[in-house]
Amino acid sequence: EIVMTQSPATLSVSPGERATLSCRASHSVNNNLAWYQQRPGQAPRLLIYAASTRATGIPARFSGSGSGTEFTLTISSLQSEDFAVYYCQQYNNWPGTFGHGTKVEIK
Amino acid sequence: QVQLQESGPGLVKPSQTLSLTCTVSGDSISNGGSYWSWLRQHPGKGLEWIGYIYYSGNTYYNASLKSRVAISIDTSRNQFSLNVSSVTAADTAVYYCARGKPLPFQNFFDPWGQGTLVTVSS
Q1: Which of A86, A98, A100 should one mutate to test binding to chain B, selecting the residue with the greatest count of B CBs within 10 A?
Q2: Rounded Cα gap, residues B119 and B117, in angstroms
Q3: Cβ separation A95–B96 shorter than 8 A
Q4: Taking a C-beta distance cutoff of 8 angstroms, is the pair B10, B18 a contact?
Q5: CB distance A50 to A30 below 8 Å
Q6: CB crowding B32-53: b at 16 or more within 10 Å, else e
């Protein structure tokens, strides 16, 4: 099973600033990597798939990059609704596995 | 707009069977190309994929739960269901149903149901 490691566990950012979240896979997952946002009390929402493709309706301030074992989610200018927990998920190898999440909180 | 909604008991006794149903609207379960999935999230923890069912009835389960899990499908009602047998407190979690894409064994999930908390307690 592929282990996904996210860093940092918590990221404190001021509104309007840039946030950079990292995700590392224990083995190469090619570009089969998705990112999700989970607000308190809500279900996860797909943001990015195939490492860099934004899902339908996702604002352009969200961008993904990387391949192989190293991936990044960037939020270019944080809005109030972006303070949430973000998970990465590899789907290259069965079963798909998730990271433990990065909490983006208001600084 | 595709929507999924979980339903079922919020409290299950230890050693009994947890049963949940997911009702899909805005998409037909009978269409190919989607892998109708169950996932769970333990309180304050990360996400775990339980398994999925294809419209043909083929099922695939996470090995960690395989001996206790069964997923079934009812295309006439556009629903799919989850059973987890012999539950313990470790099965207490928020259970989500979701649509998996794009390939068998290679799924990301979109959209998700709102989730339902199932507590295992006597």
Answers
A1: A98
A2: 6
A3: no
A4: no
A5: no
A6: eebbbbbbbbeeeebbbbbbbb
pLDDT in tens, B20-67: 999 999 999 998 889 999 999 998 888 999 999 999 999 999 998 889
Query: Which of B64, B65, B109, B114 to mutate against chain A (most A CBs within 10 Å)?
Result: B109
Length of chain B: 122
In this structure, what are the phi and psi dihedrals at residue A80, rounded to the nearest 5 degrees? -60, -35
Closest Cα of chain B to A92: distance in Å?
A: 6
Phi, then psi, of B89 in degrees rounded to 5: -60, -25
B6 in Cβ contact with B95 (< 8 Å): yes
Q: Do residues B37 and B100 lie in contact, with contact meaning Cβ atoms separated by under 8 Å?
A: yes
pLDDT for A46-71, tens place per residue?
A: 999 999 999 999 999 999 999 999 99
